[in-house]
Amino acid sequence: MQDCGKCTICCILPKIIEMDSPCGEYCKECIPCVGCNIYKDRPEPCREFQCSWSQMNFAHIDLRPNNCGVMFEKVNETLMLGSVIGKLKDISELIKNQIRFFNDEGISVMMQQFNPHKFICYMVEGASKEKIQKALEEKSK
Questions:
Q1: Spatial distance between the Cα atoms of 44 and 85, rounded to a whole number of angstroms
Q2: How does pLDDT run across 120-134, given as a tens digit for each residue?
Q3: Residue 78 domain flag
Q4: What is the DSSP letter of 5?
Q5: How far apart are CA 104 and CA 26, in angstroms?
Q6: Under a CB-based contact definition with an 8 Å cutoff, are residues 139 and 79 in contact?
Q7: CB 3.0-4.6 Å disulfide test: which of 24, 28, 91, 119 passes with 95?
Q8: What is the rounded average pLDDT of the residues 69-85?
Q9: Shortest CA distance to 38 belongs to which of 23, 50, 28?
Q10: Per the domain annotation, does 9 fall within a domain?
Q11: Does 14 reside within a domain?
């Protein structure tokens, strides 16, 4: 596993009900670019979150979410969910290559454009709508 370093994107993108933290705003326990004040006692959704960058052994620093503008979350063994900070059309060639790598490894990728008011979902190579919906339903249980 890799150290998150200055990345605290996971503390701003998702809605964290247990922390009364709305989507698009830093959690009250987050110190931006430093980390979580209550990391050892963080709530279950934060414990369960699986940032793909931090789980890789040797991922390039340019792929860290705060550097590339995309946070990949491992939903299960065959699906990654990518949340794009900014516009989906602006994702870099580096991210496109990462998606190709996931696909080559048999992992489907669903991309969603982050917007503080809603998520706009897009499907990317290797994923069927039914497969994604089933995986996301299982994750939310």
A1: 24
A2: 666 666 666 676 667
A3: yes
A4: T
A5: 34
A6: no
A7: 91
A8: 86
A9: 28
A10: no
A11: no
